[in-house]
Write a structure and sequence with these properties.
Layout lengths: L2 E6 L2 E3 L20 E3 L1 H16 L3 E8 L5 H10 L3 E5 L9 H15 L3 E5 L10 H9 L3 E5 L1 E5 L2 E7 L4 E7 L2 E5 L11 H7 L4 E4 L12 H4 L25 H11 L4
Parallel strand pairs: 1-4, 1-6, 4-5, 5-12, 6-11, 7-11
Antiparallel strand pairs: 2-3, 8-9, 9-10
Cofactor: AMP; FAD
Pfam families: ETF
Subunit structure: Heterodimer of an alpha and a beta subunit.
Amino acid sequence: MSLRIVVTVKYVPDATGDRHFADDLTVDRDDVDGLLSELDEYAVEQALQIAEDADDAEVTVLTVGPEDAKDALRKALSMGADKAIHVEDDDLHGTDALGTSLVLAKAIEKAGYDLVISGMASTDGTMGVVPALVAERLGVPQVTLLSEVSVEDGTVKGRRDGDAASEQLEASLPAVVSVTDQSGEARYPSFKGIMAAKKKPVESWDLSDLDIEAEEVGLEGAWTKVETATERPARTAGTIVKDEGEGGKQLAEYLAGQKFI
């Protein structure tokens, strides 16, 4: 039986560009360039490696977002994923992590799965809670923040690296895992892969396809909200110390004044 792998990915604003909030304090995604979250590329890579090691496997990439989110799916397809699912609905605007986990879980159940792989967090929200929330909604084990992952005989195994030690973890399938940016460099799409991605299937679903009411998602259904947002202060020039025999003393005085020593 084919191993069904679903990778959850997110279309995020380019971190190198300016980010703005809309009037309702949601991230303005209309006037900025977007791309596949870099941390999700690691999840796609691990899914592809697991699929390559399996006798028979299929990798589906899943995203929730606006029309432009298809660009993230195409990137994942060009890396080697087999097919994609895009959940898009106007009522999703302003959905928080809890609402997103509901939509993802419903879509994953509808698609069918044995293993769900996510990045450790998105590069825009950086909350890192969605994989655990999805696992809870699906009622399956979760093995998060893995720097190494493999599947063998119906079991997912992985290594989680901490500051002082590493843990070897495993769980029976079906399961949800998340991987870190230490799990392995993501491959670059080849020209052949980019061309092939244009012909791979991308299914489009909305909330009605998942039996989700509008009140359960969006700003109305959000359990969390942004109260205020301010621009990051401009960087100021640092203190320049010219060493004319007193450099060491001046440095020590500066560090003491900042309470570093």
